[in-house]
Every structure is written in C-alpha cells, then in structure tokens.
Amino acid sequence: YTDAQGRQRTITANEARDKNKAAGQALGQSVVNKMAKPTLDDAGSTLDPSQLEEAKKQVLALKEQYNITPGLAVIIVGENPASKVYVNNKHRTCEEVGIYSEVISMPADTTKEQLIAKIDELNYRQEIHGILVQLPLPEAIAKEEADILNAIFPLKDVDGFHPVNVGKLMIGQDDGMIPCTPYGCLKMLQSAKINIDGAHAVIVGRSNIVGKPMGQLLLAQNATVTICHSHTHNLKEICRSADILVAAVGRPHFITADMIKPGATVIDVGINRIAPKKLVGDVDFDNAVEVAGAITPVPGGVGLLTIAMLMQNTINAAKLQLAK
Ligand code: NDP
Question: Is the overall model pTM greater than 0.85, yes or no?
C-alpha cells in the first residue's frame, strides 16, 4: 500500500492486525461514540441517543400536528426479576422519549383468559398505540403463548410477533411491525454504512424473534441470505463465506475467529450470562476482533438498539393508527 508520504510499503502481520482491530471496533463504536447521555440497562449497555433523539423529534411532531402522544402498555405477568428490569428500562426510556407508558403487573397465577381479557381492553383503548407482553410467561401459561400474543391487534403489536406482521415482513409490505432486535441490527448496519446489497449474509439461529426476521430484513435489502441452525452441516465453512455474519445462538463464544472471513462484518446478538456480573455474546470477541472488518461488542452493541426500536415501533403504530 502507499503510506502517508507516498512510499510503497508492504503491510506487516502486526499492522494488519492493528488495522483490523481498529476497524473491528468501529461498528460498535459507531454506536458507542454517539452516546452523549448514556442510559444503562441491566446488561450494562447504553442506548444510542441518536436513535432516541430521532424518536423524541417524531413524538413532538405527532403532538404538534395531531395532538397525539404515542402510548405503550407493557404487561408483565409474575415476578421474574430479569423481566422486571427489562420492563423498567422500557418504561424509563418511554419517559425519556415522551411516550406515554403504562406498566400492568399481573400475578403469576393469571389465567390465559384473564390475560387475553386485559389485552383486549388495551386493544380498544385509544391512547394506547402499542401493547407488549413481556416474555417469558409463567410456566402455567407459557404453552399458551401463541394464543396470547395473537390476541394483540396487529396494529398495536409493537414486538412484531403477530402472524399478520410476520406475513407483512415476508411479502415486503412496509406497514407492519418489525421485531425490535433484528430491526436494530439492520439500523446498525445501515448507520455504519456496511454494504448489504449483493453481500452474503449468514445468520446463525432461526428463532422467530431474531434469526428468521433478520433473514427477511436482509433479503429485502438484496443480501444473499443463508440461515443456519443446529442441524446445519459445515457451519464453519458457511460462516467463513459470510460478508455479514449474524450470531443469534445463545451460546457463549460459539463463533470463533476461524469461522470469520477476514474483513467480514460481525453482528453479535447473543446475551449470555456466564457469571453473576459477566455477560458475553455468542462471538469470541477478543479473537474475532482481530479478523473481522467490523464487529459489535457485548454488552454494548445490539442490546443498545433493541429498546430504541421499541420506541420507534410505538411511534410507527401511532402513525398507522392515525392513518386508519
Ligand atoms: P433461541 O434459543 O430461540 O434460538 C437459538 C438458535 O440457535 C436456534 O435456531 C438453534 O437452532 C440455533 N443453534 C443452537 N445451537 C446451535 C449450534 N450448535 N449450531 C448452530 N445453530 C445452533 O434464541 P433467540 O433467537 O431467542 O436468542 C439468541 C440469542 O440472542 C440469545 O443469547 C438471546 O439472549 C439473545 N437475544 C438478544 C436480544 C437483544 O436485545 N440483544 C434479543 C433477543 C435475543 P435450532 O432451531 O435447530 O434449535
């Protein structure tokens, strides 16, 4: 390469590593650097204020133009401590952005019928534009999860889990709700100006909340998408062919450096608690950062944007309901 003085030079292995490392940190930092006012969640992550600032502006505009304040209702059933922290974070972020927020706590022995009756009440309340049922549900009603989530009107389904919204994402109709985590991953790629068009995107994980919608979103952006799972043969080779690699497995350090193509963009969705105060992703970050072109850290990467995208979905829901 040509150095700053115009001399021809050959890059050394150490220089290459440093260069990759700097670039590797850039994707996470493209979010991290913008943090003027960090908001900590229990994962120790910080929301990207640029997304929240954007949300604030939209909330103000809705108020000024239509005298509408977007409203979000979050239902929490039982006493799961992690869920309580997540729900509090959502409530706090709503307040920060100017979204009206209602947290509805129901006892652990709530029946499916009682929960659906509460959802239905919210479905018909005009000041509530988004409804979210915090998961996981207590064991007694966990197997009824699909029926419960399907009771939310699709227009108010800010998690994007309702089959109508899943279908809209699948056929490319843009008036549906997109699940917050993959929506955040897409925003992150776009804000870091990573080329998606024509890129080979490999997603490890095929859950309904991350892997599958991530695949659809990237496909809609003209990536060539491969979705891998626990039955995939030759996982390492497939991952190594990825220009964009998304890890959503739920296993600490599952993606190792030798599974990454040099220069690839790596998005780590995983949140794994390996000790009471230690969270790690699905990617072996310390080694992967040497190889990747850009990589998101855990904590502090994707987790940052998930709540911000919930705010955006609530605003989108208010706009869609206004248009109906
Ligand atoms: P799920 O458990 O629902 O899905 C995990 C996926 O990984 C499955 O598709 C599974 O395959 C696949 N998998 C498991 N083992 C292997 C393997 N050995 N090889 C290849 N694939 C494998 O998890 P989620 O999608 O809900 O979550 C994934 C991770 O993301 C978790 O760590 C979770 O905590 C985190 N997460 C983070 C969020 C955030 O805001 N940052 C939000 C949501 C989740 P199969 O289908 O064959 O079983």
Answer: yes
Q: Which residues of 172-207 are buried (b: 16+ CB within 10 A; e: fewer)?
A: eeeebbbbbbbbbbbbbbebbebebeebbbbbbbbb
Beta strands, E only, the chain: 71-77, 100-106, 130-133, 200-204, 224-228, 244-247, 265-268, 272-275, 278-280, 294-295
User: Which residue bears the tokens 């296993």?
Assistant: 251
Phi, psi of 130 (to 5 degrees): -130, 140
Tell me the CA–centroid distance for residue 34 and ligand 1, in Å. Answer: 29
Name all residues whose Cβ lies below 6 A of ligand 1. Answer: 181, 204-207, 209-211, 228-232, 235, 248-251, 269-272, 302-303, 306
What mean pLDDT do residues 121-147 have? Answer: 97
If DSSP codes are grouped into helix, strand and coil, which group holds residue 136? coil
